[in-house]
Design goal:
The complex is a heterodimer of chains A (about 140) and B (about 450). With about 140 residues, chain A is an alpha/beta fold. Chain A has helices at about 10-25, 35-45, 65-75, 95-100, 100-125, and strands at about 5, 25-30, 50-55, 80-85, 135. The N and C termini of chain A lie far apart (about 45 Å). Chain B has an eight-stranded antiparallel sheet. In chain B, strands 5-6-10-8-9 form a five-stranded antiparallel sheet, with helices on one face. In chain B, a hairpin with a 6-residue loop joins strand 1 (about 5-10) and strand 2 (about 20-25). In chain B, helix 8 packs antiparallel against helix 9 (about 380-395). The chains are: A alpha/beta (about 140), B alpha+beta (about 450). At the A-B interface, helix 2 of A face strand 5 of B.
Chain lengths: ~140, ~450
């Protein structure tokens, strides 16, 4: 029975994976941007067999919120031993070419935010004797011309 | 890249007769607003496409795919009330409710239907004589209308909407979630008895004896039998086994038909051979069977509908009211045997008297006969016209979920509450089926 943090929980791949975790009785903490989606996922995962389910609505680009979110996840689950990072966007290449701001935003969402999270998570996992598993999925954002 | 919100895709139904592009009007979650579509385009909710004809299609317009709405909302393991989104498949539901000791109160012959589709067609099962249709077991559901209203419908809350939406073919709006009273089971097995009958009279006798002690009864009939063998076949009667056993679902579905062969493998020669062998095969009277093999024998062959070739198949399911049951059914079987266009799977079942709340619900007290036919065009339609005349003369009707061709008058005579139903149709909803049966009304 693992204690799993799921980043970008509302994505299709994260939800499908979370259901498999729930079926085997894991505890889950869901993070995503839309609170209503997270709430309905929590109910669903409880019915499917999750031992405990918690959630927090957060934008991954809100780097300042990461530490508090990780604390909340650890408190809710009584620790943490697996993290699945599945957030990201399908970037609009043309819009990015036309806007530096947009490009930096996409880089933050799909790159920097992941590095920021991993840095904090790695530090926490190193301090303890944790079976550290960090999943990372690449999205199809590399479909540039 | 801009993610399209309104795109086109080819959709079909289980009969594979119609495969046409439809616009897609997405409904990403049960909380989402009714999809915005151009004002002249109608929409229709589309679940898993297991209706046979055109009742789940809206050719030339848009569909609202509902499979993304597949979350559970709650399961009360003590009372057996499950609440879930309408796009969930019965198959998905089983994986959660069965280990908790519950089963759906009513199931059709495939577990790959959505809950919303089961409601919209007010499905019946082999236990119709004991418990009626699924509509009788709904606690409540939410209906999302195109004007943004969300109506909670139950026998006491918005009862007229409850009644119109059960068997309402998706035309009253989108069912977003539903609450269903389950029935308790001790385990996943079925205690089954299989008995051969030599003709229709024996079937009727056997069926009425069995209905008292068995929750489930259904018969396979050899529709090529004539004379004294008219209506010969096998009756299966069953109850849920009382012995508990672990629920272990197979990970794969086993056999699959990967593509449609260039012509139908169901033809006069294969039919006669199959029916004769099937009727004469020796079978044990008592058996203990895994629930899927009893309820869903065809689900074990993925895409079995493809065996009927690229032109697809038609199903004909009618109900003959009780008074005319014996003669009407005999007349149907005689007409089919004469035509030589038999069906592998002719299913015979006596419906009970329990009434559904559904305004357009199909089952009524009487005998229902369901047959599959390869699409042979005009020669098949000639047979259907003959069958229609028999059904009509007995005051019977055809099942919209199975239909792709019934004449409008037959629908309107068979479902006299259609006029009352029209006032509940969402102004933005329509279907190929509905336009067809309303022709000339």
């Amino acid at each position: 029975m693992k204690k799993i943090l799921v980043m970008g929980a509302g994505s299709a791949i994260a939800e499908t994976t979370a259901r498999l975790f729930a079926q085997r009785g894991d505890s889950l903490f869901l993070v995503g941007r839309k609170a209503d989606v997270l709430e309905s996922m929590c109910a669903d995962l409880r019915v499917r067999g999750a031992k405990a389910v918690g959630m927090q609505a957060m934008d991954a680009n809100d780097f300042g919120a990461h530490e508090a979110m990780l604390n909340a996840a650890e408190t809710a689950l009584g620790g943490l031993d697996t993290v699945l990072i599945a957030h990201g966007t399908l970037s609009d290449q043309q819009a990015c070419q036309a806007s530096v701001e947009q490009t930096l935003h996409e880089l933050n969402t799909n790159g920097v935010s992941v590095v920021a999270l991993l840095t904090r998570i790695a530090a926490r996992f190193e301090q303890r004797d944790v079976e550290a598993v960090v999943g990372r999925r690449r999205r199809a954002g590399e479909r540039a011309q | 890249m801009t993610v399209p919100t309104f795109s086109s895709w080819a959709f079909t139904s289980w009969g594979n007769v119609i495969r046409k592009p439809h616009e897609i009007a997405p409904l990403p979650s049960r909380h989402a607003a009714f999809p915005a579509v151009p004002s002249q385009t109608s929409v229709l909710p589309y679940g898993n496409g297991r209706s046979y004809g055109d009742s789940c299609l809206n050719v030339g317009a848009a569909l609202i795919p509902t499979r993304a709405l597949d979350r559970f909302i709650a399961l009360d393991a003590a009372s057996g009330i499950v609440t879930c989104e309408a796009g969930i498949l019965l198959d998905e539901m089983f994986r959660v409710i069965m280990p908790a000791g519950w089963f759906v109160p009513v199931t059709p012959g495939t577990r790959f239907v959505t809950l919303g589709g089961a409601i919209a067609n007010d499905v019946h099962g082999k236990n119709h004589h004991a418990v009626g249709t699924i509509g009788r077991h709904l606690v409540r559901f939410e209906l999302l209308r195109s004007d943004g209203q969300r109506l909670i419908c139950s026998p006491t809350q918005n009862p007229e909407w409850f009644s119109a939406t059960i068997g309402g073919l998706g035309l009253t709006g989108v069912i977003t979630w539903a609450q269903l009273q389950l029935r308790p089971i001790a385990g996943p097995h079925m205690s089954v008895e299989t008995i051969r009958f030599a003709n229709l009279d024996e079937f009727l006798q056997l069926q009425s004896e069995s209905d008292r002690d068995f929750e489930y009864t259904v018969a396979w009939v050899d529709c090529l039998g004539t004379g004294s063998q008219l209506g010969r076949g096998w009756l299966e009667r069953a109850n849920h086994a009382t012995a508990p056993a672990p629920v272990q679902h197979a990970q794969s579905r086993g056999l699959n038909v990967p593509f449609a062969p260039p012509f139908s493998l169901v033809n006069a020669a294969s039919l006669r051979l199959f029916n004769t062998l099937y009727y004469h095969r020796p079978r044990a009277r008592h058996s203990d069977r895994w629930f899927e093999s009893f309820f869903y024998p065809l689900d074990s062959i993925g895409n079995w509908n493809r065996l009927y070739g690229p032109r697809g198949l038609y199903q004909y399911q009618c109900v003959i009211p009780d008074a005319a049951g014996r003669e009407g059914t005999a007349a149907l079987l005689e007409a089919i045997a004469r035509s030589g266009q038999g069906s592998f799977l002719a299913v015979l079942k006596a419906f009970g008297a329990l009434e559904s709340p559904g305004m357009l619900s199909f089952p009524r007290k009487g005998i229902t006969l369901a047959l599959d036919f390869p699409n042979r065009g005009q020669s098949l339609e000639r047979l259907f016209v003959e069958l229609d005349a028999i059904v009509r003369a007995t005051g019977g009707r055809l099942y919209p979920a199975k239909d792709g061709r019934m004449p409008p008058e037959l629908f309107r005579e068979g479902f006299p509450r259609w006029r009352e139903f029209t006032q509940f149709i969402d102004p933005r909803c329509s279907s190929s089926f509905w336009r067809r049966v309303m022709d000339g009304a």
